[in-house]
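Dear support,

Our group has been running a series of protein-ligand predictions, and this particular one with magnesium ion is the one our PI (initials K.S.) wants archived with full inputs and outputs. We had some confusion internally about which version of the output was final, so please treat the block below as the authoritative record. The input we submitted was:
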Amino acid sequence: MSNRRTFLKNISLLTLGGLASRQALAAPSNTLSTNASAPVSMGTNAKQMGLQTYSLGQELLKDLPNGLQRLAKMGFTELEIFGYREDTGKFGDYNPQNTLFISPKEYKKMADDAGLKITSSHLTPSVRDYIPENMSKFEDFWKKATDIHAELGCKYMVQPSLPRIENEDDAKRVCDVFNKAGEITSQAGILWGYHNHNREFERVLKAGEKKAERPNRRAPQGTYIEELFMKNTDPKKVMFELDVYWTVMGQQDPLDWMDQYKDRIKLLHIKDRWILGASGMMNFPNIFKKAYEIGILGYFVELEGDPKGRTQFEGVEASAKYLQNASFVK
Ligand code: MG
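Confirmed final output from the archive:
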């Protein structure tokens, strides 16, 4: 069986389509400026481009109004923010150095001034035990958060962290909470979603079942957590934001998941090792093609910290340029 390293090395053999050719990635720009530092027209030719602001963290928060202007100039049109504080209803950063906490009203005004829309937000309840006894605590969290996010004009509220799940029964209890959360946000016209990392592509068994000592590799035991989420949540209440990079890191092909759950996956996280397109391991032309085919509502670029110590703004700007130059991005 291939381990993760050989999987990544051999990714070109998968239906993902393999390493995208440099030529395909460097498709010529026809309508928009190739200079990411130049203002991009926000007219009818503007591409829909979202950014998860976690990508910038403190670099953005230390001068939010100017940072937002910079993002608009790179061509971003919408934001998915993070850092909702349950206690104050304000937004900040989980970084202990953070000193800025912004009210939804202030955040919206700054985004409006920059010509950006805050359409989505990542947030996770502080309650950790997904048991029926805690349902009212989850309800309180999502009700208050919904009021705050409605003030921001958000269309989506997305939970990005996986609760503790060891078996199918745990997953079902978690889905009961997800359904309740979706029911609450929908009352304000906000879609509730779940965002994956790679752990969602681990398989779990039914409670009490034991893994066979000699597993049959052709008939793996158990069900992917992501699949249990898809099957045990109500499509009217819960949608999915597929993080395509973490899906690949979970040894899965994002195209397969988009095909199989075309009615459930409404948003994407567009992510690479750092700058989009630079690693060659993500086939973004095919990912975008499939995304438009299934009618996704939007996507958000996301970058973790750079191991080489470049600023996050450099990575975000280079990624914006990549999308602006890509003929496969509408
Ligand atoms: Mg992500």
